[in-house]
Specification:
Largest sheet: 9 strands, mixed
Number of helices: 0
Number of strands: 26
Number of domains: 2
Shape: rod-shaped
Helix content: under 10%
Strand content: over 45%
Structural class: mainly beta
């Protein structure tokens, strides 16, 4: 599994302790082996290159390079490599310090040979770097979702004491409705997507035979601009992509894997998080339309404008019979997105609502 590049203290990574085959190196137990041991013998990859223990830039295979930088003592060094390494062997005398990078690294500091009896780093005789050839696969996942604004409305003004009119009379009553976007919103359509980069860091042509992505427990197809199998020349890089919906905003591991002909399979794991600063959301329902029976259209209002008070006049009557009646008045809401920029057509979100008010109405008898 590949890990992201980072320059960190190698001593903090060492986890290879093996009984009597270890020595103290600056207070750390470092695995040791005979200076004749190879990387393959120690499970650190089937390829290796031995370099002089001298600062400088070195060619690995005609395509990749590594830079060694020793400190003032010439005994502790840092490396930067264009190929990810599985480990390093640093011999001095009959023993080699065995540095296992625990998942590959392309930059580490603090590497050295074993200590002497006084706790001082012995001068290294050479540096052997251990690695395997495999495709590099990586890509950052991105989270997306839709956020739908919710609206609320209420009739705040009307004939509080009722209306009184005669048979055949028409009376205009003043109303006002308050409409506003609510502080709550409904999130949905949670999606994870991202690019898949595959690079051939080897000096050989190699074939991609399979590509896959898994988002949490969801197997997700990877779409490429080419058909598989696909040949990658030395140093070549290709880009594919994946996209899937997820049921909620929980964090999920994203595992990208590539199969190859003639190379071992490789994979990379990252975390897709809706809490990431790269998360994007699309806001819907940013506009609302108000209508009321008998009058029709009352107006269109934007969420950015906050609370709005909308006055309107409603006629009562004429009535042909006298007596009491409770007259309902409804205002209907329907939210939509901004009008389509090309057609001007409103894109309705499907959200509707209403506000209502009952007015006591008395028709006087002759």
């Amino acid at each position: 599994m590949h890990k992201l590049s980072a320059l960190i203290l190698a001593g903090a990574l060492v986890g290879c302790m093996q009984g009597d085959d270890s020595v103290a190196t600056h207070g750390k137990k470092i695995r040791t082996a005979s200076r004749d041991a190879t990387c393959a013998d120690l499970g650190l990859g089937d390829r290796e290159i031995t370099l002089p223990a001298v600062s400088g830039a070195y060619d690995i295979d005609g395509l990749n390079t590594v830079e060694l930088a020793f400190d003032y003592s010439g005994r502790v060094f840092t490396f930067h490599s264009t190929v990810r390494l599985d480990g390093a062997l640093v011999p001095s005398g009959d023993l080699s310090a065995v540095w296992d990078f625990d998942g590959e690294a392309d930059a580490l500091s603090g590497l050295q040979a074993p200590d002497d009896d006084y706790g001082r780093a012995l001068p290294p005789d050479s540096v052997t770097l251990c690695f395997d050839y495999e495709f590099l696969v990586n890509g950052s996942p991105y989270a997306h979702f839709d956020r739908r604004i919710q609206w609320g409305a209420g009739i705040e003004l009307g004939p509080r004491d009722g209306t009184y009119l005669d048979i055949g009379q028409v009376l205009n009553a003043q109303y006002s409705v308050q409409v506003q976007p609510l502080t709550t919103a409904v999130d949905s359509n949670f999606t994870i997507d991202g690019p898949v980069f595959v690079e051939n860091p080897t000096p050989y042509e190699a074939w991609i035979t399979s590509l896959s992505a898994k988002v949490g427990e969801i197997a997700t197809p990877v779409v490429c601009p080419f058909a598989l199998p696909y040949k990658l020349t030395p140093g070549a890089l290709v880009e594919c992509a994946y996209k899937t919906q997820v049921p909620d905003r929980e964090d999920r591991d994203v595992v990208l894997a590539v199969g190859a002909s003639g190379l071992p399979p490789s994979s990379a794991t990252t975390v897709a998080s809706f809490a990431s600063h790269t998360t994007q959301f699309t806001t819907t329902g940013r506009w609302v339309e108000l209508t009321t029976p008998g009058i029709g259209f009352l107006g269109v209002f934007r969420a950015d404008d906050g609370i709005q008070h909308v006055p309107f006049t409603v006629p009562f009557g004429p009535y042909s019979t006298c007596g009491y009646r409770s007259v309902p008045r409804f205002v209907y809401l329907r939210s939509f997105d901004s009008p389509d920029p090309t057609t001007g057509e409103q894109i309705w979100t499907g959200d509707t609502g209403e506000a209502h008010y009952y007015t006591d109405t008395y028709v006087r008898c002759p």
